Structures are given as structure tokens and as C-alpha cells.
Amino acid sequence: MADAAGSRLLIIGGAERRGTTILARFVELAGGPDAHIVVIAAASAVPGELEADYAAAFTGLGAGTVRALRLTTREDAGQPSALAALEQATAVFFTGGDQYRITTLLGGTPVDSLLQTLVADGRLVLAGTSAGAAMMSGTMILGGNAPGVTTTSVRTGPGLEFLPGVLIDMHFAERGRLNRLLSAVAMYPHEVGVGIDEDTAILARQGAFQVLGSGSVTVVDAGAASDIRVPADGPIAIAGARIHVLPAGYTFHLKDREWGRAA
Amino acid sequence: MADAAGSRLLIIGGAERRGTTILARFVELAGGPDAHIVVIAAASAVPGELEADYAAAFTGLGAGTVRALRLTTREDAGQPSALAALEQATAVFFTGGDQYRITTLLGGTPVDSLLQTLVADGRLVLAGTSAGAAMMSGTMILGGNAPGVTTTSVRTGPGLEFLPGVLIDMHFAERGRLNRLLSAVAMYPHEVGVGIDEDTAILARQGAFQVLGSGSVTVVDAGAASDIRVPADGPIAIAGARIHVLPAGYTFHLKDREWGRAA
């Protein structure tokens, strides 16, 4: 579990445009010409394509060094060469794919442990898009697309907790996912629901995040609700929750669950 | 504009099951064996089918008398026979179809005026499903399905205002319409956004409504927001709005915008 004062997390809702805002910011945070970026496509069944795609994008944006770290087994995630690659990195980027490919391959491995330490110590910037974003949450949303707000509208599992206390969903507006985010925060209102649109990201630092990109971040705070009822069967009730739809220029403080505007 | 103390409005999100909860309640409110129900399928290009469908449903639920009032021109909506049919009715039911077929055919006609009076005086129960529900709002949502919360994500127009101060959307969870409801209430936060799921309804009386049926009613109160910014282009910001997801058993008071539970 990271989220120490020094951690810098860039969490992207998927389908970010190449060569512009969000990825440009990532390269800048990574150090620009001094960047050593490691791309991990462990979420994907076709990692080669994504590795090449992002390497081209980051190089085009002026990143000094970009390399792929191919992890296909849990054994790979314990190799000294993998750990050495991370030690040299100024930034790590997780691509999209399937979020539990990431947790299954990396959860509890030496690569996972080292990443937690490097992120918490502020020694690298951790970024991820789509599945690579979801896995950063305390709780990740795995699936569920049934209409309505019910216990069966969402499936969740423990994320790698780089950003604890947050329940992240992605491709949010594009796939109409409010139902499942509401379902999840009704069951777990101690976590803040954060739905990130495509080509949109949050940059989380020091207990707050700011919004970047072309879409919005929808924050659902069911902790504010005065009544929540979750029947085993049938629709969930949530009365008095708060919702924020925040585009670029807005910030959100996770501890006091309050929005703000970037300076 | 109705919504006087005596008005009773049953506003259904579409696709209500025949022969059960919502329609049974409607027949009961209409007077059961003493009911005189008038079905108006003006929203539909195929009114005959819907008239027969609902006549069978209401009769099956024990309604005394059911008749269709076929209105295909504005002239029809001024005929003495149409007005006489409404004068005798204990309830009127508007079917689904296209909401602006209803306003185009009836808006400002003698049928519209008489309905407003009869509803306000509590002399009949007015019900509508889907398009027949949308037209009851102060502002009706006409369309818009673009992802994201933007000025172009929603098209609105004035409803017939049987329930003023409310912005109704229907087929809500099933068609993932929160984006467009949020877009609308960001622009018009003086109106309360009410998204009604399929097979779900609100029964509005005396400034409050109660939820009926198998789904939920999502209430978005952007009046509570401390910051709203609506750019001509790009994503809308809404900070600090309230959201309620209310299944059967819950009520909502429109004036003070507060939820409650049915006694």
C-alpha cells in the first residue's frame, strides 16, 4: 500500500490520445529527456503491440529512454533483471487489458513489493490506463453491466492499493457506468467512487487529485448518504449521496472528500 | 400548469409490466370497478395497437370502463366529443411514443386546457409512460445520447407542466442516461432531475412523490451544487450536487428537495 506523501500516480480512464495532453504530462513528470520509462503490458494478451505503441508515443513526446518490461509469468516478476529495470526507472506505465491479469501476475511478487516502495518513496511516477488504472485502486471494479443499482450490477476485487480508499472505474461516460459505481459505493461507502472518462486522467499526489484531459471525472461520495439499504435482491437505495462531475482544472481532496479548483 | 393540491400524477419510466404493480395501482386510483379510463395514444404513430393493449390490461385489472380517445390532428383536440370524454373520465393514460407528437398535437388546445383544470382540481388521475411521462415535466428531455456531460449531450423543450419544476427522463438505468440528466440539470439547476427506470413510476401528489415498481428513481439535485460551469464547448463541471437512488418505499419532497420513506 503506497499513497505516501511522495507518491505520484497518473490514473487514466482509457483511450487517451497519443502524443498530447495526458501522455505529454506523463513524459514531463517522468523527466522528459532524462526520463527512463518502463512500459508493462501485463494486462494484455497481446503485449507486443501495446509496448510498441506506447514506446513510439513516449519517444515522440521527447522521453529519453523507453523500454518494455515483459512479464508473462509470476516467475518473471521475481527476476533480478525485472527488479533492476524498475530501480532505474523514473516512471512506469501499465497499459490496458484485463485488470486481473495484472493482479494475478504481479500481486505479492517482488516486482509488486518493489513498485510499492518506489512509488511510496516518490522515486518513480506510476501511470496506468484502463485496466492499468483500475488495479491502482483499493478496490477495483471487475465487471458488471446489468442495468439498475443492485448487488449483482457490479463485481469487485481488491486492487493493488497504490491509491487506497478509492474505487476506480474507467471508460466511464462512454460505457454508461454510473449504475455499477453507485452499486459499489452503496456497499462500500467508506471508499470514494471515482469514474474516469476516456482521454481523461487523475494525477494523485499528497492526498488529493487533479483532473487532466478532455473529459470528466465523476466522484460519487456515498459516505455523505444519510440512508443506504442494500437488499440481497432488488434495487439498492441511496439517499443523500454527493456527486461531482469534474473536468480539467478541478481537484478533489480524498480525506475530507471536498472538491476544489487547481491554483 | 397543474400541480395544485388535488393533482394526482402517475409518471412511469416505460416498459411497465402489464397486469401488475404500477398499472394495478393506476386502476385502483382510477376507481377500480367505478373507473372511467381514457387512453390517449397520441404519442404513437401506431395508436391502435397501444389502445388495444392498454384497454386489455386495464380491463384485466378490473377497471369498470376503458375507452380510447384517438387524437390525430389539433382539430380533434378541440372537438366537443373529446372534451366530453375527458369530463366523464376518472383517469387518463398517455402511452409512449414520441413526446413531441403529444405537445404538437395537444399543446394549447381545448383538450390541453381542460386536462390541466381536471388534474389541478383532482377530478381525474393523470398517468403516462415513457413519452407520456416526459411530457408531464416542466422541461422534457427530447434526446441526446453523446457520452459525457456537455451542453450538446441533451436536447430539452418545454413540457406540458403538469409537474412543474421537474425535469423527467425515462428508461433511465436501462439506457444509461445519467449523462444527459446531469447535463440538463447543470444548465437548469432550478429544476430537479428525475430519472425513472423501466417498470418504475412516481406517484406525485401534494408536492411530493413516492416511488413504485421494480426499479429505482434517480434524483439529481444540482441546486445543492456550490459550483457549476457550463462552457459552450467541452465538459460541464458540477461540484457538490446531491444524488438519490430511490426504490419503492421512498418518497421525495419537491419543494425542500428532501427524501423520505413512505409511512
TrEMBL record, chains A, B:
Its EC number(s): 3.4.15.6
Q: Which domain of life is it from?
A: Bacteria
Which EC main class describes this enzyme?
A: hydrolase
Record GO biological process: proteolysis
UniProt keyword terms in alphabetical order: Hydrolase, Protease, Serine protease
Q: Which reaction does it catalyse?
A: [L-4-(L-arginin-2-N-yl)aspartate](n) + H2O = [L-4-(L-arginin-2-N-yl)aspartate](n-1) + L-4-(L-arginin-2-N-yl)aspartate
User: What InterPro entries does its record include?
Assistant: Class_I_gatase-like, Peptidase_S51, Peptidase_S51_cyanophycinase
Q: Where is the active site?
A: S130 (charge relay system), H171 (charge relay system), E198 (charge relay system)
| Keyword presence, Hydrolase | yes
Annotated GO molecular function terms are: peptidyl-dipeptidase activity; serine-type peptidase activity
Its family remark reads: Belongs to the peptidase S51 family.
Q: What does this protein do?
A: Exopeptidase that catalyzes the hydrolytic cleavage of multi-L-arginyl-poly-L-aspartic acid (cyanophycin; a water-insoluble reserve polymer) into aspartate-arginine dipeptides.
Q: What is this protein called?
A: Cyanophycinase
Organism listed in the record: Mangrovihabitans endophyticus
